UniProtKB/TrEMBL annotation:
Keywords for this protein: Antiport, Cell membrane, Glycoprotein, Membrane, Transmembrane, Transmembrane helix, Transport
Main location: membrane
Species of origin: Rhipidura dahli
Name listed for the protein in its UniProt record: Choline transporter-like protein
Function: Choline transporter.
TM segment ranges: 21-44, 226-246, 253-271, 309-330, 350-374, 447-474, 495-517, 558-580, 595-616, 637-657
Locations listed in the record: Cell membrane
Single GO MF annotation: antiporter activity
InterPro entries referenced in this protein's UniProt entry, alphabetically: Choline_transptr-like (IPR007603)
Cellular component terms per the entry's GO annotation: plasma membrane
Membrane topology per record: Multi-pass membrane protein
Origin: domain of life: Eukaryota
Length: 701
């Protein structure tokens, strides 16, 4: 009979569609429009330059165009000694006037000395004046008044710019700390002080900046080596494609090569560790323990210890034994997985365009990430400058209250607290918008998670639809519809946006809770008691498990949506019960397939990683001249390894989706049909042979 006449209820994943989960679809579209509005509002209010450039006492950042600071890009502290006070830690602002200057001072000078020598050395005053408030040119004003009104600094110190701020130019001479070869300096208030006082002051700010300096070095490394990183990722892409094309013809052989390749690499690792361990015998200092030398930033120190190599060797031996045992016990199941992979590679062979679908998902996620990051930065910098009263006297009752610099000189504060000033404190604001910035940041994070999960869901549903149309074609490849990937994408968007958004929403809620738990854990680290820690740990663990379970259910629900076009809840229920009825097969096939694909990813990442290591450490003679000079060679190396893994993951995820889809279709096929002429199987002969034996025998009887 004709292949289409049996089972009128089901005709493959194409016909009889209607829109599903419409309410969720409407909510999703409204949320996206709201998200765009939030981005626009943040863009209007925010200014990321506030983060990059330091801000002076007048609330203008250094280098700001169309202001007096246009060519002044460095921040100068009037009295850096005040930065050692505890106020710095509370307000994160130094309680001294801060000005933007074009370059840092290069000599010692005090206002008293400059004023005294003004008549016969006016050039000294002209140099000193550039560190006074803009427009101040009165060297005859009494010292007490100048210092009270903070018109000029009491002293200047040889400094150099560090992260756009002037810091004393420290150097060590014979173990003694000096600034410009001097150990003491005049503070401009009649005292001679030691240079170590400056060190304490600078340290207050330095702790924050030290971390930044490492960041700057890493950034420099990226700037020099990005070109080579991209080449590494391109090689990873070629390797991944090559693997998938080879899989299409020789899945079995290639996977045994994979497995023995990994065993061989780990075996070589064990031998190398043993060789290093043996080689270090008798070398002085090699018998120290890791505990003895503590934490070192230079990783090479650890490689000179025998204990390090011994630890590596034990870890690798453990991994080797586990892999070999798994191979012995799972050998028959691996054969089944290879049969499914061959079927999968046949499907991909007929629908090659699916291999490049991850690029679409990647672009969608990249757009989401960049939009989220830009919005987050603009939200974080969307405060107005807030000014506070800064008093020299600690007893002033107005200290730390907000003020307005325009009207400040007409208020009582200057009379009650002589020398008090209204200076920039931080970016914030009192308006409704500014009060809810934290809520906006949370909303930004939540919609970001929702959109990312939606992009992934769309990819899974599209691929599932394409591969299902391959499986349910009675004569392969003659009955496979034209443009299966494109039509599957169209179906998913047109009919099932609501269902995909619903699945993504559930995941996004769980992920947001996980983010909040991590944030709480980070915030409460120092203060919490053991019970709170235990509770947080349990919650984090539960939500991690829940997220994993939901991802599994969602993935199979999207496959059912792609096949039958039902709503999300019905599809999830059908998928769950179908999998439960075939639970042993699911466990074996899924895990073996995942394991084999994971080995593939490791091989791609490892191969490219080894190549990158030899390249960046100048071990390849041909390219030795081309290698950029780096601060830390592990920066591009780690990037290449992680990037290669992600590239391989993108390609192999298509494969995993293909196998999962075919497996669900196969289970459906077995339950719906019995191989008779009235209800023939849709599966290919090879699947029929390997997977169907036990299931078929009772039905034939």
């Amino acid at each position: 009979g004709e292949p289409r006449k049996f089972d009128p209820k089901f005709r493959g994943p194409i016909h009889n569609r209607h829109c599903t989960d419409i309410i969720c679809c409407v909510i999703f579209i409204v949320v996206i429009l709201g998200y765009i509005a939030l981005g626009v509002v943040a863009w209007v209010h925010g200014d990321p330059r506030k983060v990059i450039y330091p801000t002076d006492s007048y609330g203008q950042f250094c280098g700001q165009k169309n202001t007096l600071n246009k060519n002044k890009t460095i921040l100068f502290y009037f009295n850096i000694l005040k930065c050692a006070s505890p106020v710095v830690l509370i307000n994160l602002q130094c309680p001294t006037t801060q000005l933007c200057v074009s370059k840092c001072p290069d000599r010692f000078a005090t206002f008293i000395d400059v004023q005294a020598s003004y008549r016969y050395r006016p050039d000294q005053w002209n140099y000193f004046r550039q560190f006074c408030k803009p427009g101040f040119n009165n060297p005859r004003k009494s010292v007490a008044q100048v210092l009270r009104d903070e018109d000029c600094p009491s002293m200047i110190i040889p400094s150099r710019p560090f992260l756009k701020r002037c810091f004393p130019d420290f150097s060590t001479k014979n173990g003694v700390l000096t600034v410009a070869n001097q150990t003491t300096f005049k503070d401009g208030r009649g005292k001679t002080r030691n240079v170590t006082d400056l060190r304490e002051a600078a340290n207050g700010i330095n702790n924050v900046l030290d971390a930044r300096s490492v960041g700057m070095k890493i950034f420099e490394d990226y700037a020099i080596s990005w070109y080579w990183i991209l080449i590494g990722l391109f090689i990873a892409m070629m390797l991944s494609l090559l693997f998938l094309v080879l899989l299409r013809f020789t899945a079995g052989v290639l996977f045994w090569i994979f497995i023995f390749g990994v065993i061989g690499i780990i075996g070589y690792g064990i031998w190398h560790c043993y060789w290093e361990y043996d080689h270090l015998k008798g070398i002085p200092g090699s018998d120290l323990t890791v505990y003895d030398i503590g934490f070192q930033t230079d990783f090479k120190v650890y490689l000179q210890l025998r204990q390090t190599w011994l630890a590596f060797m034990i870890i690798l031996c453990g991994v080797e034994v586990i892999i070999i045992l798994m191979l012995i016990f799972l050998r028959s199941r691996i054969r089944i997985a290879i049969a499914l992979l061959k079927e999968g590679s046949r499907a991909i062979g007929y629908i090659m365009s699916t291999l490049f679908y991850p690029i679409v998902t990647f672009l969608l996620i990249a757009i989401c990430i960049s939009y989220w990051a830009v919005t987050a930065v603009f939200l974080a910098t969307s405060g107005e400058p807030v000014y506070k009263v800064m008093a020299n006297q600690t007893l002033c009752k107005y200290a730390n209250l907000t003020c307005d610099p325009e009207t400040f000189n007409t208020t009582n504060v200057t009379k009650l607290c002589p020398g008090a000033q209204c200076t920039f404190a931080f970016y914030g604001g009192e308006s409704l918008y500014h009060k809810y910035i934290f809520i906006f940041q949370l909303a930004n994070a939540f919609v970001f998670l929702w959109l990312v999960n939606f992009a992934i869901a769309l990819g899974q549903c599209t691929l599932a639809g394409a591969f299902a149309s391959y499986y349910w074609a009675y004569r392969k490849p003659a009955d496979i519809p034209l443009w299966p990937l494109f039509s599957s994408f169209g179906r998913a968007i047109r009919y099932h946006t609501g269902s995909l958004a619903f699945g993504a929403l559930i995941l996004a809620i769980v992920q947001l809770i996980r983010v909040i738990l991590e944030y709480l854990d980070h915030k409460l680290k120092g203060t919490q008691n053991s019970f709170t820690r235990f509770l947080l740990c349990c919650l984090k663990c539960c939500f991690w498990c829940l997220e994993k379970f939901l991802k599994f259910i969602n993935r199979n629900a999207y496959i059912m949506i792609a096949i039958y076009g039902k709503n999300f809840c019905a599809s999830a229920k059908d998928a769950f019960f179908l999998l439960m009825r075939n639970v042993v097969r699911v466990a074996v096939l899924d895990k073996v397939t995942d394991f084999l694909l994971f080995l593939g990813k490791i091989l791609v990442a490892g191969g490219v990683g080894v190549l990158a290591f030899f390249f960046f450490t100048q071990r390849i003679p041909v390219f030795a001249q081309e290698v950029p000079m780096l601060n830390y060679y592990w920066v591009p190396l780690l990037t290449v390894i992680i990037g290669s893994y992600l590239v391989a993951h993108g390609f192999f995820s298509v494969y995993a989706m293909c196998v999962d889809t075919l497996f669900l279709c196969f289970c459906e096929d077995l339950e719906r049909n019995d191989g008779s002429t009235a209800k023939p199987y849709f599966m290919s002969a090879s699947l029929h042979r390997i997977l169907g034996k036990k299931k078929l025998s009772p039905k034939k009887a």
